[in-house]
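Hello Y.,

Per our agreement to keep a running log of every chain we model this quarter, I'm adding this entry. I've kept the format consistent with earlier entries: sequence first, then predicted structure.
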Amino acid sequence: MKPQEALRMLEALVFAAPEPLRIKEAAEIVGLDTATTANLLRRLCDEYAARGAGLVLEEVAGGWRMVTAPDLAEAVARLGRSPRQGPLSPAALETLAIVAYRQPVTRAEVEAIRGVHSESALRTLEERGLIREVGRREGLGRPLEYGTTDAFLAAFGLRSLAELPPLPEPVLPPEGDRGAAGRENRPETAERGAPRCRGGC
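Predicted structure for the entry above:
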């Protein structure tokens, strides 16, 4: 197969795929090895970027997807189309940040950090497919542990968890304000460090 023909086919596959297109899957469909397929996808990405297209290819969650260019977000928003699901509440976003940075994490650990019950927020995140049960903690009651999903990576435009931005350094309280000690463990610290959702969260 000629490279240009393979590029056209890969472009169609990325466009049509409901989830980020895995390189292995794309290679099987196109009939090429994974290394060649990966190189062609990067070439296609570069071609879109070079011509300043309204669509861009990005590598997220172990695959490739096609999205609108970030600088056109305002224009796209003028369509006035409502997302299928409303935005996540501050409580859900706070909980998601804790799971992302502390995983695997139990509900009790999330609630200890947030200081409030978090069953509803965890359930919402599970329903959205952003987190999932990843196992059970050894010990009394063997509580469920939660971790993020590929849908989380895709929603935030991350290729892997290694791309999570670092959390800000804790700020030590000034002398005479020792009551503020421990503020660095407040949940909003994790929320400030979390990436911004690109998928309507």
